[in-house]
Amino acid sequence: MKYILMRKADADTENGVLPSEDLLQAMADYNERMTQAGVFTDGDGLRPTREGCRIQFRNGEPTVINGPFKQTSELLAGYSVLEVDSLEDAIAWAKQWPKEDAGGNVTLELRRYFTLEDFDPSPALEKHRSRERLPREMNVHVAFGGNCREAMEFYAKVTSGHLEAVITYGETPAAADVPPEMHDQIVHSSLNLRGRRLMGADMAGDCYQPPQGTQVHLDYNNTEQAARVFDELSEGGTIIMPFEQTFWAHRFGMVTDRFGVQWMISSELEQCQ
User: Which end of the chain is more exposed for a tag (fewer CB within 10 A), N or C?
Assistant: First the structure.
């Protein structure tokens, strides 16, 4: 079940008061706990309504109404999207909202998303259902020749992603079917990057082939952050294309890291328009 956890606005959020360092840390820790539990899908804070607007329709004609808006307690200051098994689970996570926010005096609201199963069959519903052909996720899997653990720990450090799984052959029922020297090597690893995953495993002997013709692409809003990641991935590797401005991106570069994996790093297109 998917729920949206809404943080209602107050005088501070409507006046554009930024979170304190303590609150930023507390929210980061809270989101990290939910991410590791596999329930955090997305979330963000919203700027004051004076910087937004409403589009109101009357008889199909739109009218733009600029903020700010009254009734502060009914406005939205931020949200988190949770994937949980029940309303009770969503409530349990909502109750852990950081006390550092407004001194523990906030109002949250939980609302469950509709699903297609809530509707009666119809041609319009079938058109929506056709989107189910899309996979729930698309992940990247990389083969390694014995250094998967080192590589994945390095990628976790470079990207600040969550290394949610590192499982050896010796920890699985397949242990009896692989040579003893493979027991400490990795049969499955998973690095969670905002819900997308870079997975990896060690391949034995002739089963391993260096990655060819495929790159892992990381895009950043912050150019300095993108440059840092490019530089760190370049250490001990080979730069294919320098990290520079192009006609399609503010900055873009390609590198093969020291583990033989190719990366494309970019800072988004909009910045060069």
Answer: C
Q: How many CA atoms lie within 13 A of 156 on its CB side?
A: 17
First to last CA, the chain: 40
In this predicted model, what pLDDT tens digit does every residue of 72-111 receive, in sequence order? 889 999 999 999 999 999 999 999 999 999 999 999 999 9
Cα 60 to chain centroid distance, Å, stands at: 37
| Residue 59 backbone phi and psi in degrees, to 5 | 55, 35
Distance, in Å, from the CA atom of 213 to the CA atom of 272, rounded to the nearest integer, reads 28
Q: Put the strands of the sheet holding 108-112 in their side by side order.
A: 40-45, 76-83, 2-8, 108-112
pTM of the predicted structure, to 2 decimals: 0.64
Cβ atoms of residues 265 and 226 within 8 Å: yes
* Bridge pairing between strands 215-220 and 262-267: parallel
Taking the C-alpha atoms of residue 149 and residue 190, their distance in angstroms, rounded to an integer, is 10
Q: 241 in helix, strand or coil?
A: strand
Tell me which residue of 112, 202, 106 sits closest to 150, measured CA to CA.
Answer: 202
Q: Which residues contact 270 (CB under 8 A, 6 or more apart)?
A: 250
In a 3-state reduction of DSSP, which class is residue 150? helix
Q: Hey, CA dihedral for 134, 136, 138, 142, is it positive or negative?
A: negative
Instruction: Give the closest residue to 109 by CA, choosing from 129, 131, 126, 87.
Output: 87
Q: Tokens 């919203």 map to which residue?
A: 46
Question: What's the CA gap between 98 and 117, in Å, rounded?
Answer: 34
By 3-state DSSP, what share of the chain in percent is helix, strand and coil, each rounded to 5?
35, 35, 35
Answer for the pair 33, 97: CB distance below 8 angstroms, yes or no.
Answer: no
Burial track 210-243 (b if 16+ CB lie within 10 A, e otherwise): ebeeebbebebeebeebbebbebbbeebeeeeeb
